[in-house]
Amino acid sequence: MDDNTKRLPRWWSGGVCSALAVTTTHPLDLVKVQLQTQVQKIPVTELIGNIYRSDGILGFYGGISASWFRQLTYTTTRFALYEHGKQYVDANNASAKVQLATFAGICGGIVGVPGDVVTVRLQNDSKLPPESRRNYKHVFDGLYRIQKEEGIRSLFRGAIPAVTRSVLLTIGTNAAYDQIKQVIKDFRHMEDGLPLHFLTASVAGCIGTLMTQPIDVVKTKYMNAKPGEFKNLGGVIVSVAKQGPLAFYKGFVPALMRVSPNTIITFMLYEQARLRFGYFPQESEDKKKQH
């Protein structure tokens, strides 16, 4: 009988599993974005109350279509490149995994920027006065209107912090997940099952949030800015810094509450998809020989 733990994940698994995960954590992401873009600080409880009074329960799912689109492009690219690349590096070498995660993060970050821009704007729209809202109907309407009204370059606004965050997140989750999982299996002799996946993903989620939060604050503020509000990325960093060092960790609690569960759900679904729908290494070798 085949040992399913030896199965490798399909290229689409990461994006699909992440899209399912983000459906459950989207309200926390929306609150995080609105906290990061506020100028006058208000308590998170008041912010949540404002969202509910303005749009009801559905208000917490503003921009969900853009979040799905982003995961199906950005996360699919990151996971697919990282997993495929592991066939060509030393699986026991942490440095090799970090380098591979960096490459996958750069590619995924570039692919995901347009979806990220629309996601941030849709999530922040309900906070704005009615006359200032962009009122994108959905992700594709947002993509079309941004390139039409602001030019194609605006779809890649904040690309540098977005790609940087993507690299740090891929290192802090994918590479960290693999390394932590390997260490726990070696020293705790845990089987490749749900308890191991949950424990590993929990630690990776915390690491990922700590690494990415400062750049995430800068990225969110820049993507949400109106044309001409900031001359360049340096202007955004200065604007955040003027609010004090802790401003770079604005929205950290909602971010941790979102990234950790999101990472846990994503990786647990991803592992289950691998065990049930993945392929054996021999299948890949046979296909190469056929070609």
Automatic annotation (TrEMBL):
InterPro entries: MCP (IPR002067), MCP_dom_sf (IPR023395), MCP_transmembrane (IPR018108), Mito_Metabolite_Transporter (IPR050391). PROSITE patterns: SOLCAR. Keywords: Membrane, Repeat, Transmembrane, Transmembrane helix, Transport. The keyword Membrane applies. Its main location: membrane. Gene3D superfamilies: Mitochondrial carrier domain. It holds the Pfam family Mito_carr. It is a multi-pass membrane protein. Solcar repeats lie at residues 5-88, 96-183, 192-276. GO terms for molecular function: phosphate transmembrane transporter activity; sulfate transmembrane transporter activity; thiosulfate transmembrane transporter activity. GO terms for cellular component: membrane; mitochondrion. The keyword DNA-binding does not apply. It is found in: Membrane. It comes from the Eukaryota. One of its GO terms (biological process) is phosphate ion transmembrane transport. Belongs to the mitochondrial carrier (TC 2.A.29) family. This is GK21563. The lineage of its organism: Eukaryota, Metazoa, Ecdysozoa, Arthropoda, Hexapoda.
